[in-house]
Amino acid sequence: MKISVDVLRRYTALPETLRQVRLLLDDLGLEVKRLSPDGQLTLELLANRGDHHCYEGVAREITGRTGGALTPPPVATLSIGEPPWPLRLETDLCLVYTATLLERVGAGAGQLSDEALAPLRAAGLAPVLAPVDATNLSNLELGQPTHVFDADTLVGAVTIRLSRAGERAWPLFTAAPVEVPEGTLVIADDVKILAIAGVIGCEESKTTAATRRILLESATFDPVKVRIASRALGIHTDSTARFERGADPARPLVGAGRVVQLLEGTGAWRRVGQTGQVGAWVNPERIVRLSAAAAARFFGMPMPCELIVEILARLGYIAHVSPDDGDTVTAYVPTWRLWDVEYADDLYEDLARSIGYNNTPVALPPVEMGALPSPAELRRDVVDGLLQSFGFYEVFTDGFYGRALIESLGLPEVHPLREHVQTENALDRAYSLLKLSCFPQAVELVALNQRVKNEQVKAYEWTRTFHPAPQHKLPSGRLSAPCTERRVLWMVASGTDRPRAWLDKSRPADLFFMKGVVEELGVALGLTLELGPAEADAPLAILLHPARQASVRLNGAVVGVVGEVHPSVLKGFKVRKGRPVYLELDETALLSATPQAPRFEEPPELHPIDRSLAFSLPPQVEAGSVSEALRAAGPPSLIRVAIVDLFEHDEGGVPTRTFTYALTFQTTKGQALSADEVNAACEAMIAAVEGGALGARGVRLRR
Amino acid sequence: MNRPDTQAMLAAFTAALAEATTPEQIEVVRQAHTGKKSEIKLALRGLGGLPPDERAVVAKEVNDVAQAMERALAEAGAAIEARALAARLNEEWLDLSLPGLAPPRGARHPVITVEEDCLAVLRQLGFVRVDGPEVEHPYYNFDALNIPPHHPARDMQDTFWVDGGYLLRSHTTTVQARVLESRPPLPIRIASAGRVYRNEAVDATHLAMFHQLEGLWIDRGLTFAHLKGLLTTIAQALYGRRPVRFKPKFYPYTEPSVGVDLQCGVCAGEGEVAGGAQCEACHGAGWVTILGAGMVHPKVFQEFGYDPSEVSGIAFGLGTTRMAPQRVGVSKVALLYGQDLRVHTRLHRSGV
Fold it and tell me: Residues of B with CB below 8 A from A389's CB?
């Protein structure tokens, strides 16, 4: 809301400087978002305080603090009597409706003074026509929206009713009539809708410079009904803002009186007859009781009953102390606060505002003991530290994406990754599907970075994916969620394992790099994480290179997938460089698994004996299978088999890989090994490899 | 036997040693002048042939010369070794203007860093982290928190509705509702942190997905003074001992509700910077809002079967997404939520 400090000073005394005014308003919860040197304020008002949406409301809040006098603008006294126009009320969703008829006295529509128009101009509204300006002023000054109909356009009675199916209205400032949702609260005459109640008037009955008679409406409508109509029609006005927060049902006559005061003040208009009123609203005289002793405990300071009564009175309550116990304050809630004051706690807030939130005591509640991070939180820290040490940056991706992203994957028409939970009202099409897999966003991340010439990509994220699930009724009667949420840790790497250095050559951040990451994660978490055969039916299987993907297994159970992004996917995302590798792990499995401490053995005193064997492997024979065969054939003293070198060459036209296996034999006191014994063991291992299944597949010792 | 001419031996040795410049040449001199077949060794072996009255004198002469030779050899060897070492060290100069070669580290997301800092403070106060679903029933997001249908407060949190009548949680307060529903024993001290969603037009400062951290303390006897004490402790633990102010706010699930402002670090609360210009950091207010909080609303307690006259509660929320850009000196929060890794690198490494 935009207001003028100068106008506000008409209502109550204010501090001298603008800065002091600002601090006071901030302190009262009337937050100043902007203050111009000429004293124009933009206030951010609280959603539950409709009564703040006017000068009088702001001023009243100030007097609640300062105890100063409140001087509202003059209002013509209207008397309720014979309606000047036939009124018919067909719904109790209109609490009060008043109608006052005015007619033009002179030739023109009149002109409000600059002083009167000041609130209008401060609000950024240009004067239009005296009757319209007066209604706007009533809202700005007193918080009572009003409206004027050209009375000579009305046909028959003015009826407050719910709209019927298919009924149309032509709201002001719109190009053409629109269909009004059935059940909307409207003001109508016998042939047309005159206004959407609390929202906006209509073209056919609008007041113009030629208008001779106006019917002044001032009413209070059900807040929810106004809000629903406003949203359904997509029309939000100052009236809506006021009504949907709950207007003061006792105020319509005052608001109408202000309009009459302003218009009669121009000399161009005068009342005709009395004011008509319909509506069954009766002040419920809501009472809220408050214990002064409880308030004192709540604030941690003395709260005498007299002080409570005085503060509440400043804010418009009628309050008194119970003579029975001398502690209970009984407060009658003012009509403009009926919508937000219900409990003693609401009165606490009013007391706190008046005293000042910064003027009550401060005390830290007793804390007997701090808390430690949970094991899962600690383990997540470990993973974070490890990934960062490998050069990964943590990133965030949205919890949703658009259909276009999924289409970029080139999935078949029927595929599990097409079955998303959908958002129903996303403003942006890119948010239409809840994330079912992190893979598309990971590839998109690589593409984005390549577009900006950043080929070094190492990114990871802890996030969730959403998997459709049939809904069923819960014990609470509510339906279960339309999806299950899976916690995921994913990462993507592309480029090299380290930035290009001046001395050495980097390796590609390839599948072996990522396999190393998996292995080190296992070490860091005390888990046996291994790569296993890829699962053909895994949703990501067709999006990864068929010969360069694997499952990630924890104690044999699949907890993730790793692989090179499929070349056709890269093409779809226009990733032209590198071979990005994607890893996805089940966060829950990773962080909740029981860690196993490494088995510690003291280093032996005697030096080990090392030997190396080189085996040539034909295509498709896994180097690891030779390691396993060597281990199986080796003596108990063989403690390590490690691949330490690869030589790729051509052997008789067959592409061949020759691996060097470093063998370590451990000798201990009392179990000394001789060189001959080690050599004999090696010969036995060679024979086992060459003479076994591997030998049959062409594995040979390279001599 | 003639008396040996030790001085001549020493002179010859000295001359030879003066010519030696390498450890190998020194060894040659050692062999020639102090080896088994050297004159000095022959002289030692021939002492027995001297008359007894000369023997002791000559023996001393020969021994003195032999020892002098050994000392000279050791000194010359050490000097050559020192020169060689000095030369080697000189040759081993490294050009340290070249970059280091350790693999560069990555980094945690700045929002998570802020989140962890907040949690670290809260843990000291006994809070434990709990979590809940992101796809949530509207009951936990709204109704249970005193936000009935069509209430204007629902506008404060434009909501993503999803299939099946559910929504993407618009605040982490949903977790508080779920904890209260489970009725754990008092006191309850929980912190919930994570992603929340708002169906808003996205720009440099507005996001459809961002992060929040909220805390809830339920016990008997908690007061408004405790609320202020707790929030002051949290604010000053995170930002240092800068002045804090409280102001009225509205949150449907707390009453009274408060906003916590921290004195602006740029203008020190003046609202103006040098020259009288409005401080851009706080838009002239002199204060920056960092926390929203309040005493748990009686309706929330009643919803979950608590008697609000028996228990009271403090609820508060920290906008970790809003805090992070301030921490790292970024004006557009959208940058932090993008996937351009150049941004993340530059947040941690200058001049990249």
Answer: 103, 105-106
Note whether B246 contacts A358, CB cutoff 8 Å.
Answer: yes
Nearest to B104 by CA among B324, B338, B352, B330: B352
Closest Cα in chain A, distance from residue B328 (Å): 15
pLDDT tens-digit map of A654-666: 899 999 999 999 8
* Residues A536 and A679 grouped into a single domain: no
CB-count exposure of residue A674 (10 Å: 0-12, 13-18, 19+): exposed
Question: Is A399 close to B197, i.e. CB distance below 8 A?
Answer: yes
How many Å lie between the alpha carbon of A603 and the closest alpha carbon of chain B?
Answer: 29
The domain in which residue A296 lies consists of: 287-359
Mutating which of B196, B247, B343 best tests the A interface, going by the most A Cβ atoms within 10 A? B247
Which chain A residues touch B339 with a CB distance below 8 Å? 395, 397, 441, 444-445, 448-449, 459
C-alpha–C-alpha distance, residues A488 and A461, integer Å: 8
> Phi then psi for A495, rounded to 5 degrees?
95, -130
Q: Is residue A75 part of a domain?
A: no
Rg (CA), chain B: 42
A158 has which bridge partners? A87
Residue A356 has pLDDT above 60, yes or no: yes
Instruction: Please check whether residue A367 lies inside any domain of the structure.
Output: no
> Is A369 within a domain?
no
ipTM: 0.87
A265 and A211, same structural domain?
yes
Q: Is the pLDDT of residue B156 over 60?
A: no
- Which ranges of A640-697 does DSSP label H, i.e. alpha helix? 675-691, 693-696
Helix axes A675-691, A623-633, angle to 10 degrees: 130
Query: CA nearest B166 in A: which residue?
Result: A481
Q: Determine which of B135, B174, B230, B307 to mutate to test the interface with A (most A C-beta atoms within 10 Å).
A: B135
Chain segment A150-180, per-residue pLDDT in tens: 999 999 999 999 999 999 999 999 999 999 9
- The answer to whether residue B182 neighbours chain A at the CB level (below 8 Å) is no
Three-class secondary structure assignment of A242-288: HHCCCCCCCCHHHHHHHHHHHHHHHCCEEEEEEEEEECCCCCCCCEE
Task: Provide the residue type at A188 as one letter.
Answer: A
Beta carbons within 10 angstroms of residue A507's beta carbon: 11
Minimum-distance CB partner of B168 among A26, A301, A399: A399
Nearest chain A residue to B148 by CA distance is A224
Instruction: Please tell me whether the overall predicted TM-score, pTM, comes out greater than 0.90 for this model.
Output: no
Whether A598 contacts A526, CB under 8 Å: yes
- Average pLDDT, rounded, for chain B: 90
